[in-house]
Amino acid sequence: MRRVPPELRRLLVVAAVVAVAVAVVRLVEGHPAAARRNSRAPDVAVPGAGQTPVTMTPLGDGTVRVEHVQGVTIIPERPQRVASLGWNDELLAAGVRPAAATGSGGRGWPPHLAAQLDGVPLVDVTAGGPDLEALADAEPDLIIAVWYWQTRYDHLSAIAPTVVLQPGHWFWRERFMDVARLSGHAEPGRAKLAALEERIAATRALIHGRIGDESVAMLRIFAREYRLYGHGYSGPLLYGDLGLARPQLVDALAWEQDAARLSLEGLVALDADHILLMHEQRIPISGAELRRLTAHPIWQRLPAVRAGRVYPVADLLMRGGVISREVTLDRLDAIFGAIPMASPDGSE
Amino acid sequence: MASLVSLAALAGLAALFVGATGRAPADVIAALFGGADAETALVVREVRLPRAVAAMLVGGALGGAGAVMQVVTRNPLAGPGIMGLNGGAALVVLAIMMVQPHAPLPLLATGSLLGSAAAAGVVMLIARTLRAGLTPLGLTLCGAAVAALFGAVSGAIVIGANMQNDMLYWTVGGLGTLDWSAVGFLALGVVPAAALTMALTPALTLLLLGDEAAIGLGQPIRRIRALGIITVVIGAGLATAVAGPVAFVGLMAPHGARALFGHDQRWTVPAAAVIGASAVQVADIIGRSVVAPSEIPLGVFLGLCGAPLLVWLVSRVDLARLT
Q: Which residues of B touch A106 (CB under 8 A)?
C-alpha cells in the first residue's frame, strides 16, 4: 500500500472540480435561455405564436395572403384538401377532415380522435421528419404545420402552401381559431369555441360546488422520477379556465415552468387535497411504475391518498386541442361530480 | 484504504441528512433509532436509507467491475460496457417489453441481468474461436462487435415496434425512486459477486504480468478471465438493471484506485469499489440538493466531475499502462 504525500492537495483538486460542476449545473438551471424555454410567455409577437393570431388578407382572386410564424404564404381562400402536421384535433373540431395527417408519437391516431380520423392517410414521422412522399400523394392544397416542423418548411412549401403555427399551452383558443380561419371554417370554429366556453363554465361551477377551494395537483409517473405539472399540459385548463386552487408545492416549484421533477422524497411535501394521477397508458412500463408508487408507504401517507382523493386519469390530461378538452371536461365532471356536495371537512 | 472507506462511510452517512424535504439532523438520528415523528421516520427509513445503500452498492459494483474488466482485458479504457453488457441488457429488456408489455419490474430487472450475461457469454464464445485464443485484445474486439450487433437489433425493435418512449423509461439512470425491494435485489447479487472478486484478486494481479508469465506461474488464465467476467456481469449487470446505465464510474474509479495503490489488485479492486461507491454517493447527494427539491440526473453530475478528474489523473501518472 503506497502512501501518497500531498493528500490535501488532491482533496482540494477534487473539491474544486466538484465546485465547478455545481456551478455549471446552477448556471444551466438558472440561465435565462432555460427559463425562456420553460416560460409561458411567447418569445416574440409574431402572427401565429402566443396571443397573436395569423393575419389574413384576401387578395380578391380566390387567394389569401397569410402572415405566420415562418413568413408570408399565399393560400387558397377555401382550401379543399388540408394536410395536418400536428393540428388534427383543431381541424376536426372546426369540422374539417384532413386530407392527410401525422399521428401521435409514431403510434398512429390518438385514441380520442381515432374514429374521426379513420381512413385518413397517415403521414409517418418516425424517420425523423414527415414522410414527404405520403404527404405529396395526398395532393393537399394547404399544409398547416406545428412549429416543430419549421425546419422542413422549404420541403413542405414545395408540396403545397404551408402555414406554420406555434402551439402554446395558454393560447389554445388563438391557435384553434387560426386553424379554423385558415381552413375556411371560421364560423363553425367560432361556434365550437363558444360552446366549449359554456362547457368550461359549467364544469367550473360543478367542481367549485363540490370541492370549493381545495387544491388539485396533476402528478405524472415518469422514468425514475415524478412530475408535478404547473402550466404544462392541462395546467392552463385546470388552473386557468377552471380556476382550481393550486397546491403550495405547485406554486413553490412548478408554476414558473411546465413541470417540476420530484423524487420519492420530494413527493412527501405534496400538499394537494386532490391528485389527478397521470401515466402513459400506451407505455406499459409506466403502469408498472404506477403500481410500484401506489404501493409505497410514502405515497400512502399523502393526505390526498388517505382521503381517497386520487383519480387515475392515464394520459387524459396530456393532450392539447379542443376535442380533447371536451373529453377532459366530461371526465372531470364524472370525477368531481361523484364527490358529495357536503362540506369538505369530515366528508369521509 | 482506511481513509477511503471512512470517506465512503461519511458520504453514506451524509446522504441520510440531505434530501428534498428539510429534516433536522437530530430528527434524522432519532428516526434511525426509532424516534422522531412518523413522517421523518418514513423519509429516513423508507427513502433516504435505501437510496444511500443503493448508491453504495451501485457505485461499488460498477467501480469494482470496472477494475476487474480493465485487468481481464488488459485495457485501460475498459469499463463494464466494453463486453457489450449494456447492449445485451437493453436488448433483452426491450424484447420482454415487446412480447409481454405488462411485465412486472422485477422480471425486467432479471431480464436486464440475463441480457448482460448473454452478451458476455456470446463475446467469450466468439473470442475462444479466434486463432489467438481468449486474449485481451480479442475480447475487446469481440465485445465491440457484439455491442454493435445488439445495438442494431435493439434499434430495429425500437423502430419496428415504436418503443422509443418505453426505452426512455429504461435508459434514464437514477436512484430517485428506489425502494428496499430494489436494494434487496441488488444486494442479493452484488455481495456474493464481491466475495468471489476478492478471492480472485491475487490471481488477477499475476494476470497483469502477461499471459505467458501467468501460465509459467501455474495460473489457469482462462478460468481466471472467465470467473472475472462472471463477477463483472453480476455486479455491473445488476447495477444497470436497478439504476439504469450510470456513466463513467466503471472507467474512472479503477484509475483513481491505481493512482493510490498501484497494481496489487488485492488493494486496487476493493479501492476502486470504494471510490465508485463514494463517487456515486456524492453525485447523488449533490444531484438532489443543488436544485432541491427537484433533482438533476446522476449521470450528469458524474460526467461533469468525472471527466476532468480522469484527465487530471492520467496526466499525472502514466496510468495508460496497466503493467
A: 162, 164
